[in-house]
Design brief:
This protein has about 240 residues and is α+β, with helices and mostly antiparallel strands. It contains nine helices and five strands. The radius of gyration is 24 Å and the shape is elongated.
Length: about 240
């Protein structure tokens, strides 16, 4: 009696893989369909590549932190890698991303980043202060109100860093970029601490004048970008390790 010949079954394996892939694809499409639009918007900005520099006022949603991870390791700063710390940084960054996304002016005049010790928000002076002065704009007050909310909700301290372009002080009441950037940093820090809702020692202000430009001041656009105020929400112990914040 002749034996029956059986053909190879490799096509069955390939077909099963195809069906599995299609099921996964349709499951992904279903999940994306039920996610609220605002959640998609926040998630999309969180995963933007660091090379994105669109926007007339400078980098949008991107900003390099002065001290990188390698520098901090050399300085002996501990690097917490627990899930709670990462979750807090993500939540804080998401809060400010929503504010930026809801305001077209801030979209083109701000940057946002995070590292192992905190979250950094940079906003151009033109969006935060009246020209040549330390007078807060209504938009600045809204941002600082959100900053106060972050300090009340999370165990973070705030360092306000003032920066001015080389000639930004010209024609105003301040003698140099040092005085101008210092007055602006103090105004922002004072607004947050004046509420009395937090201990005033959790807020610090520092002036850098024109010593730390983001870009060479060869164009007006670069000058606008260099004149900025930075709100750095950091772990309370970060300044205790000489991190140069």
């Amino acid at each position: 009696m002749a034996r029956k010949k059986f053909h190879g079954g490799s096509w069955k394996v390939a077909y099963a893989d195809f069906v599995t892939a299609m099921m996964a694809f349709f499951l992904l499409m279903w999940i994306l369909n039920i996610v609220p639009p605002e959640t998609k918007q926040v998630l999309s900005t969180y995963f933007q590549p660091a090379s994105d520099t669109s926007g007339p006022g400078g980098p949008v949603m991107i900003l390099d932190v002065n001290a990188n991870t390698a520098d901090r390791a050399v300085r002996g700063i501990p690097k917490p890698d627990d899930a709670q710390s990462r979750s807090q940084r993500f939540e804080i960054a998401s809060k400010f991303k929503r504010i930026i996304l809801d305001n077209p002016e801030l979209m083109s005049q701000s940057g946002l980043s995070s590292d192992e010790t905190g979250v950094l928000l940079r906003i151009n002076n033109s969006a935060m202060f009246a020209p040549g002065s330390a007078q807060l704009t209504p938009q600045a007050r809204r941002v600082l109100d959100e900053a106060l909310g972050v300090l009340k909700e999370y165990n973070m301290d705030l360092l306000v860093r003032g920066h001015a372009a080389q000639q930004e002080h010209t024609g105003g009441a301040f003698a140099s970029p040092w005085e101008l950037s210092g007055a602006r940093a103090a105004a922002a820090a004072g607004y947050v601490s004046a509420s009395g809702a937090i201990i005033s020692t959790r807020v610090r202000a520092i002036s850098y004048g024109a010593t730390r430009p983001l870009r060479p001041e060869t164009t007006q656009e670069n000058k606008v970008t260099n004149g900025r105020v930075e709100l750095y929400f950091h772990r309370p112990d970060a300044l205790n390790f000489g991190s140069g914040l």
